[in-house]
Each structure stands twice: as C-alpha cells, then as structure tokens.
Amino acid sequence: MPAERRVGMDHEHHEWSPISTRGKLSWPNNAKVALCVIITLEHTEWEQPEGSFSADQAGGLGLRPFPDYPRFSHREYGHRVGIFRVLDALGRNGIKSTVAMDTQTAEGYPYLVKHCQDRGCEIIAHGVSGSQMISGEMSVEGETVFIRASMDAMKKATGSTPRGWFGTDYGESERTPDLLRQAGFDYVCDWANDEQPYPMRDGLVALPTMLEMD
Known about the structure:
This protein has a 4-stranded mixed sheet with strand order 4-5-7-6, covered by helices on one side. It has a 3-stranded parallel sheet with strand order 1-2-3. The termini are far apart. It has 5 helices and 7 strands, in the order βαβααβαβαβββ. The chain has one domain (about 30-45, about 65-214): Glycoside hydrolase/deacetylase (TIM Barrel), CATH 3.20.20. It is globular. α4 (about 140-160) crosses α5 (about 175-185). By secondary structure, it is α/β, with parallel strands linked by helices.
C-alpha cells in the first residue's frame, strides 16, 4: 500500500510551519535578538558498550585502532581545558550558556558540575555518554530506561531536575519526543530544522540548534 502523501512532514511530532506564514515573534524585555549558546560536555568510553549504539564515522572510515589515543585525548581536551576557556570568554561578554552534560561526565567530573553551576549555567541532560546514542533499534523499555537514567543522574549531580534534553549525536527514535515528555522534560534540542523555538506535540518545545556549528 503506498504511503499517504500530504502537505508537511511525514510524522506527527509537530505541525508544518514555514517561517513565511508566522506572525512576529516577541522576546522578553522587547529584545531584538535571542541566542542560546549550548556547550556539550560528553565522556567517550574506551570501548563501545555491548548492546549500545553510536553514529558511524564521517566519510565512511573503517575501524579506528585500539586504543585510539588521538581521538580520546582530543575528546578529553574539552574537560581539561576547553570548557574553562569557553566559559571565561562567554563570561567576559555577559553571556550565560546552557551546558549539555552526559551521565558519565556528571558522575566522573563533579568539579565540572560545580564549575558550570558557579557560572550560572543551566545544565541539561545529554544522554549517558558520548559513545552511546538513542536508536530506533532500541526497545521502548530500553529507551525509557536510557532517558530516565540520564535524567536521574543529572538530578543527583546538580540537585535539580533538568528541564531540557540534547541527545548524543542528535540521536532519536520515532518515539523519543513522546518519551521525553512523559519523563517530564520541557524542551528538546535535537531538531535542527528552524531558527525559532516551536511547539511539538503534547507540550514539548523544540529549541533548534545550528547543526553546522556543532
């Protein structure tokens, strides 16, 4: 049976809304520009956990050597140096950022949690690790546990429940937005299809990111 074709998207997560049909968007305090700066802090494991999923390497490259010191040391730069330099630069310009932090970073680098909180950053959930992402191959139960584990770990590490979700490598299944809302999240940053926040189904809000700058 052929797929039903209609105007808009091939899913029910949000309405079709070209920017040319929208009214004027007003920001708080009559601001002319709104910018959301998101910094990702993710820990990458030495070996891919059994049963987990990760994004293929860009360019279709083959398997990397093990141990892959160049890749892992490059990743670690963000935790050792990068985050401090970026937050200092933003702070000098009066910009507060959002930090998307995964479970393993929150549990293994508590000083980074405190450093981000001391600088007024909002910390949102970013999955379990940089080498584990949500996939459509996961079961409903497995994905639910994955989301809940990240949410609970961030609550324990920061003392507050995260309002936002930014999946590892933007990974989602067809049911992820529904599961995020059921878990209690208010917004998701995985959808890079707009320049303005927009409502998704059942009250979840999409906060688009610039994929080209990630």
